[in-house]
Amino acid sequence: MIAAPISDVLPESVLVAHLLRQASQPLTAATRARLAQALLDWFTAGWSAQDMPAAATLRGLAQTLMPGAGEAALFGGQGATPLAAGFANAGIAHLREIDDAHRAAMLHPGVVAITPVLALASSLGLTHERAARAIVAGYEVALRLGEALGARHAGLFHATATAGAVGAAAAAGMALGLDAPRLHHALGIAATQAAGLWQLVDDDAHESKSLHPAFAVRNGMTAAFAARAGLPGARAFFTGRRGMYAALAGEGPLAAVAEGLDAPERLHTATIKAWPACAMLFTPLDATRALIEEHRIGAADVQAMEIEIFPHALKIAGVQWPARPAEASFCLRYLLAVLLEKGGVLGIADTEAPDLDSPSLRALAARMQVRPNEEFQRAFPQRRPSRVTLMLRDGRQISAYRDLRRGDPEDPYNWAGLQQRMRSFAPAMDEAQAAALVRWCEGFTSPAQDALPCAPAGALFGAA
Hints:
Layout: H1 11-24, H2 29-49, H3 53-65, E1 72-74, E2 77-80, H4 82-94, H5 109-124, H6 128-156, H7 163-176, H8 180-191, H9 199-202, H10 211-228, H11 244-247, H12 255-258, H13 282-295, E3 302-309, H14 311-316, H15 332-341, H16 348-352, H17 359-366, E4 368-372, H18 374-377, E5 386-392, E6 397-402, H19 415-425, H20 431-442
Parallel strand pairs: 3-4
Antiparallel strand pairs: 1-2, 3-5, 5-6
Helix pairs in contact: 1-6, 2-4, 2-5, 2-19, 2-20, 3-4, 4-5, 4-10, 5-6, 5-7, 5-10, 6-7, 7-8, 7-10, 8-10, 13-15, 15-17
């Protein structure tokens, strides 16, 4: 059973108290609208990947590890147990690299905050309001801890799998209705299971990256149930002598854990991704598209190309040329070559079934020089600076600089734009399915629906 009360002086205790206090406040119209956007983004990511062979592998793996039928919906599959659905849906929603991101925390928050709540919605009989509170808490914890861990951590670990595991525990714990001591223990249990090495990138194992959020959600959900059952967790799980910050190469601002608690929910600070690629590469993609649109140029006009970028981007997305489709989203040369050849368009098909042997794409990539810029690195992670310079065959030299990304809080999507993005990234969705999904997400914007059951029907997941 749970032992002595947890000290209120720990930053971790302050964070837990903040989550419960935040959950007791009315949901503002702005938060409701932003939550609906996050949900639509999450469903878009899952729908876009549900027919991939890797999605079938994840569904099969979930059934092997956590067998049995259940009420929890699966992207592209039959109902499963909550833990199996959480595992599979988290992995599937991350396959396309289009799930939301965050500049300072350097992780994907929606996949760890939303997935466990919707996996539990049927079995717990969650209302819209209870689900909303749990999702907001998941974002809050994952993003605060990710920001505190900082860039050194993010160069070694996938923060979606580390801070994300604790965020998933917060979301699941709030969904379960844990009190403060048990919620704290849930976060502490999850923290001891936080892992996700970027060595998989160095060893060309990109296909396994989707397991990072899958394990994070599984571990976070398990931690919440373990705490409910009375098992204790590490109390100083983040700031302790052998806590996450010390053990996992933390170097960011520790104040992010438990200060600035009167700020708007961290949910508002996430980025909705504009490109089906690693978010580290977005500013050069945005800059190149701006040059294409402003100067009406294409691949045939480019004599040479120079891309300056913050060095951290190349630690995560430094593939020289893809050897397999899973690497396409992490190769700047490939993505820029496609963007130039297709007149500013980069679609799901370009990373799902990339033409890696294309002579024209390879020739264009060979004319690109990627330069890490240490001055740009000093602005990271709050900014993601890059400069793209094109030397054109007519003798002109043109350049564009970007340090913020389309979809960042400073340049957000509106609701109509998000629906267009959904149809672009999930072309298999028909009009009726799209309309039903939009209506379901919009339900979270109305206080009149707070008491209604949250559990989304399998049809919203494209269930088989």
